[in-house]
Amino acid sequence: MATFQHKSGFTLIELVVVIIILAILAVIAAPKFLDFRTDSKIATLEGVAGAMASGLALVHSKAAIEGQDVKIGSIVHAGVTIPLYNGYPSVRGRDDWETLNDQVQAWLDIDSVSLTEIEIDNDAAPFFIDKSTANNQIYIFFAEDLADKSVNFNCHILYQNPVSTTNYEIFVRTDEC
Q: Residue 170: helix, strand or coil by DSSP?
């Protein structure tokens, strides 16, 4: 009489099904875990915002020493005249983008260009500076996001020196990075 031994193991079809399931999971899950580009942009913006806060504290200290920390004033910092409101940098409507970029570079050591320069050469610097004069705001965008930039585009730093308060505000917008 013949005896049959039962061998344990997987059939070829079972192995193929498991491999297909793992491949589907990898295609769906991997991009969510490996989105380093977005994470690096967010970390960069947060780092720039931290440096901005330090630079603003330095400008305010210098303004206080020079008696320019109340209402409208100005100081010369790093060879650049910076207009102030309550001792913090402000946005003046008559300043062009190049002047604004020079002012931002004076109090925030950043590799940036103005909006007009980035429109000519998108590789001129990793960041560009924009403004909203009516709201006394300065924006810092990634150069690569120039085509996406709009009023509602949320991958930037927003600096605001509101005229209704004595402090500044820094907002890091990362919803669309």
A: strand
